[in-house]
Amino acid sequence: MRILVTGGAGFIGGHIVEAAMARGWEVRILDSLDPAVHPDPPPGIPGVSVLVGDAGDPDAVAQALAGVDVVVHQSAKVGLGVDFFDAPDYIRNNDLATAVLLAGMAAAGVDKLVLASSMVVYGEGAYTDSAGRPVHPAPRRVEDLEHGIFDPRDPATGELLLPALVTEDAAMDPRNVYAASKLAQEHLAAAWARSTGSTAIALRYHNVYGLGCPRTPRTRAWPACSALRWPVGRQCGYSRMAASAAASSMSGMLRRQICCPLTRWLAAGLPRAA
């Protein structure tokens, strides 16, 4: 099988490339190698073709898609950004680039897509009160944050809420531009699949960690939380998953023959699909 990994020089993309190579698949990477993300050019991988280009460039996309069976779309602008003035850059890199990629796939007859989405499409997530009743949380109070209290409160009682399991059918509630752009990617993929008779899967990653993980305030906090012996799955109040698990689930999806237009997963690793 021949696969194209957009953003394959990145953190999660690199793990996916390694997992695909281990299965004996032919891998091609399309990556812009943005100096802001890759200050030092990443080393080449024997047997992997690397095309330096933007997923929003129709010519680069057409070249990258030649002879490909499946596309793993990882490239995106991530994070919360500085302020709303970043919105055009998020839409250009995430949504416009995805539209260009999907149009190129339609033209090239490539009919299988695995999309990197995110748990941020669920917004604040699910919470209950002390009696187990679901509650839509209020915005966090500044005074709580200043005192290290990060869980939201019940808007009616002021009681601190308890985190609950978010199911795949939970309502979408994107609360920033990045989240909105990821949900838009899913909708574009669904529209492409229905229009062309193709298949698409969106994997909604949680906070991913592992070798090559970018250094951020959040990832720097994990070792301290681990020293306190907090549960692995919810350290420092955030759910997280290993990059190797994300890559394994992604490669597993590549082997499936998908029959429905779009399959949404809460995160990689769940043994279910619609």
TrEMBL record:
SUPFAM superfamilies: NAD(P)-binding Rossmann-fold domains
InterPro entries: Epimerase_deHydtase, NAD(P)-bd_dom_sf
UniProt domain NAD-dependent epimerase/dehydratase: residue ranges: 3-128, 167-220
UniProt similarity note: Belongs to the NAD(P)-dependent epimerase/dehydratase family.
Name of the protein this chain belongs to: Nucleoside-diphosphate-sugar epimerase
Naturally occurring in which organism (per UniProt): Arthrobacter bambusae
